[in-house]
Amino acid sequence: MNYSQAIKHNKIVSTYASASFGAVIGAIVAIAAAAFVNSVKYFAELRKTFSGNFLTLERVSIDLTLTGFITGAAILILLIRRVFDIPRWYGPADTIYAAHQDVEPLDLRAGLASTLVALISACGAASVGQYGPLVHFGATAGAGLKKLFFVPMSSNVVIGCGVAAAISAGFNAPIAGIIFAHEAVLRHFSPKAMAPIATSAIVAAAMVNYVFQLPHPLTLRGEAPALIEAFLPIILASVMFGLVAVIFMISLRKFAVINKNWGLKPYQSLSIAVCAVVIIGSFVPNALGLGTDALVSLLNTPQDLSFIATLLLAKIILTSICLGFGFFGGVFSPALLVGAASGALLAKAFEPVVASSLTAALTLAGMASVAACVVGAPLATVFIVLELTLSYEFTLITLLAVIVSQVVSSNIFGHSFFDRQLMDRGIDLRFGRNQLSLNQTTVAGYATCDYIATPTNGTAQEVMTELRKKAQTEAYCLTYDGNFVGKITINQLLDAPPEKPVSAFLDRSPLTLNETHSMHEAIEIASSFVGESIPVVSKETGKMLGVLTEADLFAAYLKIQDNIRAVER
After folding, report:
1. Which phi and psi (to 5°) does residue 359 adopt?
2. Mean pLDDT, range 505-514, rounded to an integer
3. Do 191 and 170 lie in a common domain?
4. Which neighbouring-strand residues pair with 546?
5. pLDDT tens-digit profile of 104-123?
6. Among 73, 200, 366, 496, who pairs with 161 as Cys (CB 3.0-4.6 Å)?
7. φ, ψ at 487 (rounded to 5°)
8. What is the DSSP string of 525-554?
9. 180 lies in which domain range?
10. Would you give the distance in Å from CA 405 to the centre of its chain?
């Protein structure tokens, strides 16, 4: 017995082995997170060093430093696209999809290239996020290590380890990372997956804290108001947070559709995005990049109403243009800033009637609510707030806001932005792994050759004899090349002249399936079928491939159910 089989058959050894593998993934993702954060920070400082170079055209001043950085980033992205020959970039939506099935695994090459492009976009000051690329990198790294070392762990657990490590390292929030992996990506709780995923998150947080010593991503000063005082304003504001999240997600999708409809080449799309970054960034520099400094400022310092409103509008538009027209990155970081700005804006509106202590609470609640709606992880977002603030009162207020806003957003837009991305590709996760597996399993693999075939000149008596011999009630008429002609039943043969060819009275248009039909489609078709079996006929050649009985369909369905139960146990 080799080491893989030994690990697989010994539960204690398997638990320790999977936890060790989770620790390796956590360490790798922590290194990537540190490299990502420090690189973006370095280039942000570099831009500040060379700032002050402006080109004034009439009343408009163009930041030449920003223009150079964002143009350089666009050129590098075009080079990477050419070198890797990738038609699109890969992100959290692909991670979620990969965790729900094994037919289409993660593309390691595309995943690494996408993470690199996201890093370049953020370093160039494009309005993109870091957490989505890190999540996909973590999943990709885990899948790559599993493939390289033949680790006997299911793919979804490996993906969960990478995702948990990414959120843990990005926010310094290991508990939130664990919950995010189960809530937003795996979408089930599996006891056997808990050890490796938790280990991965804890190791990532430990390395970020003690090895790389990255600063806390967010800081919040001030005390939370009493829940009874904040209850009504938070309820009212949360409805608006849900609507803001919907507007943000619709904007992201609309700009991507515009780019697609225009049929632009990659360099043309990126040129538009570069112009948008230069123009908007020259007027609203706080809308550029990850937006971490602007977010901290909103959470801790009272801001002018016009500044908040301008930042909110600029961040939505600029992020939509950047992601829709060629740059790549996450939506979590922009959603945090959009949410915080909407919370700060509503705090200004409530100032005449509520206490000033609500400003920080509304800003924090807005940040968490919009982000939770966009990524589809309400519980994980609440735990991010808990681990960042260590405040039970702030967490309760945030929980209330997230619940209300999630109800508004999910009923108008859907579960999350990533789910809508998958639905645009014809992948619907609302019905879980069961239907997805049925849709990915074709009938060709379950068709059997247990049927009676007769040539077109076969007689009724010959076919009847075969039916009696094999205790069947249906036969299929085929040409000498094996092409399907029609179907004949025992009822049609009872009154037929014994010597007459079956081609004279067979059913030439019976219910059929082809090799492209999924098991889900076959079950729907068979729900109104009456008979012994359904022929499976090649869509291209017309050849008879086999038959499917209702028993075959039940067996396939039960097998898929057993596989899903094994994954989720």
Report:
1. -60, -50
2. 90
3. yes
4. 536
5. 888 889 999 999 999 999 99
6. 200
7. -125, 145
8. HHTT--SS-EEEE-TTT-BEEEEE-HHHHH
9. 3-211
10. 21
pLDDT at 299 (0 to 100): 86
In whole angstroms, give the CA distance from residue 151 to residue 115: 24
Q: Which amino acid is at 563?
A: N
φ/ψ (deg, to 5) at 101: -160, 165
Domain shared by 337 and 197, yes or no: no
Structural tokens at position 109: 């090459």
Question: Which of 34-38, 251-255, 553-557 is the least confident region?
Answer: 553-557
Owner of token pair 């230069």: 278
Residue 288: is its pLDDT beyond 60? yes
Cβ atoms 488, 502 nearer than 8 A = yes
Considering 211, 241, 258, which residue would you say is the last residue of a domain?
211
Distance CA 532, CA 534 (A): 7
Phi, psi of 125 (to 5 degrees): 85, 15
3-state SS, residue 477? strand
For residue 47, give the H/E element and its range. Answer: helix 11-49
* Residue-averaged pLDDT of the chain: 88
CATH number at residue 151: 1.10.3080.10
Tokens 């837009």 -> residue: 413
Q: Taking the model in full, what pTM does it have? A: 0.86
The pLDDT of residue 57: 66
